[in-house]
Amino acid sequence: MKPTLIVLAAGMGSRYGGIKQIDAVGPNGETIIDYSVFDALRAGFGKVVFVIRKDIEKDFREVFGKHFDDKVPYELVFQELDNLPSGITCPADRVKPWGTAHAVWVCRNVVKEPFAVINADDFYGAESFEVLAKELMNPDLKEGEYFMVGYRLANTLSDEGSVSRGVCTVDAKSNLNDVVERTHIERVNDKVMYKDTNGKLVNVDDKSLVSMNFWGFTPNFFGHIDSMLNEFLSGSLANPKAEFYIPTVVNSLIKSGKASCNVLPTSSQWFGVTYPGDKPIVASSLAKLVSKGIYPSPLF
Predict the structure, then answer these.
(1) Is 58 exposed, middle or buried (0-12, 13-18, 19+ CB in 10 A)?
(2) Does residue 298 form part of some domain?
(3) Can you tell me the distance from the alpha carbon of 250 to that of 174, in angstroms, rounded to the nearest whole number?
């Protein structure tokens, strides 16, 4: 069975400014999404599900319809603020999306096979899709066997400003023990530092494996999210900034023994458009990959 790729494209992009998910960065106007879909199909994925907001549907279809229609099996799913479990009403003053785990939850009715989850504005590299697809297509894959593609921290930093990363700890068998969110990570005097809760700069190994929100799950993950989403909303519904994240669900399942998560290391260089100044860097990096023959131009 071919796995499905879920692309989280409903983010507001406040630091970037504008709808960065549909911004052209490739030599022939391709977006980062185009490259992710190309890599996924080449690795063996069979379908793509895009999670977007209803208000960007028209722009999204105009950009990607000409690329994917009649070429790529895909569906659109909407992550709206009021798309919540039965009996729960969204607060009137809520403007922030409910988070990445909620974005996966809204796909529960259209995904019935093993699946991967990625961010729309991150370039992950062909190798990363290949190593994850191999695991998700394993005929002996069991429910509750999850995966995370792990990147070296040094390969995920931005020259344009600080970033937040989920720093991972793993056991001797490369199973994930924990993901700890570190904020304001950047290079300071040739060292990689993050700010702790007191605002103090703390050194972190630039070889540390970090999560770039590239996950692989079996379909039972939806059931776990469903029960935990109800629990989350019961305590955080009135908090306008509270978000329900994938690592929160994964950490809980690991600690309770309900699932395992194997970290798949990759040597791929990550890049993305967190800040406006990242765009020319991404465009230059993609142009180099095209010139080396790693990607055709145009892609589709």
Answers:
(1) exposed
(2) no
(3) 15
| pLDDT at site 14 | 45
Task: Answer whether residue 139 is part of any domain.
Answer: yes
Which one, of 129, 118, 115, lies nearest residue 39 by Cα?
Answer: 129
pTM: 0.91
Length in residues, the chain: 300
Question: Which among 171, 246, 243 is positioned nearest to 209, based on CA atoms?
Answer: 171
Domain for residue 12, yes or no? yes
Q: What is the CA radius of gyration of the chain?
A: 19
80 lies in which domain range?
4-291
Total domains in the chain come to 1
- CATH code assigned at 221: 3.90.550.10
Beta strands in the chain (DSSP E): 4-8, 47-52, 74-78, 115-119, 122-123, 145-152, 163-170, 176-188, 191-195, 201-203, 209-217, 260-266, 271-272
